[in-house]
Amino acid sequence: MALNSFVRRARAALALGLVGGAIAMAAGAAPAAAGLGLACPSATSTPFSAWKDYANYAFAPDGGFESGGSGWSLSGGARAVSGNETYFVHSSADKTSVSLPKGASATSPGMCISLLSSKMRFLTRGDSGSSVKVQVIYRGLLSSVLGIFDGGTISSGGSWKPSPAIGMLGGTLPLFTTSVSFRFTAVGGNAAIDDVYLDPMKSS
Ligand SMILES: [Ca+2]
Question: Cα(66) to centroid of ligand 1, in Å?
Fold first, then answer.
């Protein structure tokens, strides 16, 4: 269903005459958007190894909110607050996370993505019964939105814990995707997130 929507949008892009540049971008590969001012971090750490996930991940731009959510879009009362997630997955020196009051959302800056991108993870906590809805926003040339993928709704109730790995269509990214950002929205209660990681190259 969602994929059909992506295909329709991709066809619309073709009709708009973006063919040459877009094909060059798609063929040019991975990381496709390195020249567009996007963050293209290297996947050089295994932050979730304590949970038997040995994949290499890249840290999202200010993914631990130690700079107050620099580059992030915070809305509905979302804000950086004192108090890090308690596993200190990114660094034992970290001190900040993002509070998401019920209905609030935090959207990450764009990150470039390879055609083999596989998954992302983060840490969360929240009120009993709260969850964090994850959406993956795919963008093409000129930041046009190619599609928004429902990454699932992750239970956040209780103390800090890692989310499950959230897949991002694996090898079937929307045609012409050059970057991806993530939107986290608290539903059912107040929640918080910290330490957002992307596995930009399928590694396990
Ligand atoms: Ca943090």
Answer: 5
204 occurs within a structural domain: no
- Taking the chain (204 residues) in runs of 10, the rounded mean pLDDT of each run is 51 42 40 56 86 91 97 98 98 98 96 72 98 92 85 96 84 73 96 92 45
pLDDT for 20-73, tens place per residue?
Answer: 344 334 433 444 444 456 777 777 789 999 999 998 888 999 999 999 999 999
Distance 97 CA to ligand 1 centre (A): 5
Give the Å distance between the CA of 86 and the centre of ligand 1. 9
CATH code assigned at 177:
2.60.120.260
For residue 39, what are the domain limits?
A: 2-199
User: How many domains does the chain fold into?
Assistant: 1
Q: How far is CA 151 from CA 42, 53, 78, 142, in A?
A: 22, 19, 20, 24
Q: Kindly give the distance from the C-alpha atom of residue 28 to the centroid of ligand 1, in angstroms, as a whole number.
A: 34
